[in-house]
Amino acid sequence: MSETKLINVLFLCTHNSARSILAEATLNHMGGGRFHAFSAGSSPRANQQPNPMALEVLSNAGIATEGLRSKSWDEFGKPDAPPLDLVITVCDNAAGEACPYWPGQPATAHWGYPDPSDAQGSPEQKLEAFRQTLHAIRRRLELLVNLPLAGVDKLVLQTQARELAGKS
């Protein structure tokens, strides 16, 4: 019987305050011990923190928010960084940027979502934008966690992750 390898997934966005935070927390919640998710930003602002509305919708969905923090993608290029198997950009800005060299050359994919932080309207309407983004991320992650990933190589992982970009 082969042992299933833990798959480390990094979600990238520009500021690491909303979409990538939602994806990290959600995959860690649903990953069933098969996945360990992280998130980072290509250019988080000074003293950047996760968006309070992102934390609120995660809490309301029963997803743990302890330990979530905004950080630069530079942390994942350091020698002591966890080895990455899959890097997924969740915003179009980060997808178009030149990514740093990732040790181990992980598989990559782009899953674009509109930025809920840009939502206009009442506080309730803004919170609804975060709920909708969480729902869209969760649907795609449900497909990812249900893929038969035991013994999968990087090319297959990359192909499957990229195919999920077209599903919602």
From TrEMBL:
Keywords: Arsenical resistance, Oxidoreductase
Domain Phosphotyrosine protein phosphatase I as annotated: residue spans: 7-147
Keyword Oxidoreductase listed: yes
Enzyme Commission number(s) from the entry: 1.20.4.4
Top EC category: oxidoreductase
Name by which UniProt lists this protein: Arsenate reductase ArsC
GO terms of molecular function: arsenate reductase (thioredoxin) activity
Taxonomic superkingdom: Bacteria
